[in-house]
Amino acid sequence: MIPQSSRGERFTSYEVDAFEVPGGREEDWRFTPLKRLRGLHDGSATATGSFAVAVDSGVEGVTVETVGREDERLGAAGVPADRVAAQAWSSFTEATVVTVAADTRPEGPVHVTVTGPGQGTTAYGHVQVRAERFADAVVVLDYRGAGTVADNVEFVVGESARLSVVTVHDWDDDAVHVGAQHSAVGRDATLRHLSVTLGGDLVRVSSTVNYRERGGDAELLGLYFADAGQHLEHRLLVDHSVPNCRSNVLYKGALQGEGAHTVWIGDVLIQAAAEGTETFELNRNLILTDGARADSVPNLEIETGEIEGAGHASATGRFDDEQLFYLQARGIPEDVARRLVVRGFFGEILQKITVPEVRERLEAAIDAELAAVGA
């Protein structure tokens, strides 16, 4: 396969064999420890368990369907762009489609829970969330359990619809998850997506946003906390291909413990036809202990000068001992002071979570992470 010179030339296919088996030197795979993927990347991981999806029932204006591979709606948000995503597409037997009807606004969030197949087993799956014209909904996509999982998730946001999604990766310690998220944003539509990654041995999530018509607005937020030995990887591509669309990306991560590793790759492409684009992306990482490593690579590719604005930034730094000293000098115990500093670091993202029980759960999880190392 010829290396791409632009993200706009990224190869996509539903066929597994259209992609070469990654060897680790490819740009898309150079940060990923392939030996820990349990065969998801080379075709040796066959499905031995089930991809279990449970959705809240009885939410007014929301329908849930289990459909076969032949359903014409599947694939509406995007096509696999790597071998694992293509393998997941080729291997799932049933897909879950969650549809928010046009002109409706459910009173509360729609909870979608994906449970892993269990320790020592592998599963593939597919979920699609659809917000039809003028719909306004909040969806919580919650991953939990054990095992090895690869999946594709689609978010289809119709004309003038508003979809807010919170994805929580709270896997058991042994889990491996490689996921591809595809978003299609319609005319004057809004997508707000927060990705939270806490659990799992290895989690790699690749997210792509495509704009279908003018006026689309996407905000992509991320929060991740890696412990000793964990590998958490987030890859984003925001593809501005039509005029007058907006995007904002903000991901923050904390790391602690020997061998903790996070990877954030943020690609924003402004194609020649995408005049009037406004975009910015930022990644910040806080390293709490020795032995942890954060890789952060923001990329901005612009093919037209007729834009409203574009920028990117990345920063990785150690825990600020001066802040800790300042708080301790005012009588605050060290463990509480550390908690306050980390909470403050994540506060900008936590305050944007509109589901109180999710926000409280994440705050408790952050406290537990810090307590695990005797903070």
UniProtKB/TrEMBL annotation:
Highest taxon above the source species: Bacteria
Pfam families, sorted: SUFBD_core
Protein family per UniProt: Belongs to the iron-sulfur cluster assembly SufBD family.
Domain called SUF system FeS cluster assembly SufBD core: residue spans: 118-345
InterPro entries: Fe-S_cluster_assembly_SufBD (IPR055346), SUF_FeS_clus_asmbl_SufBD_core (IPR000825), SUF_FeS_clus_asmbl_SufBD_sf (IPR037284), SUF_FeS_clus_asmbl_SufD (IPR011542)
Identification of the protein by name: Iron-regulated ABC transporter permease protein SufD
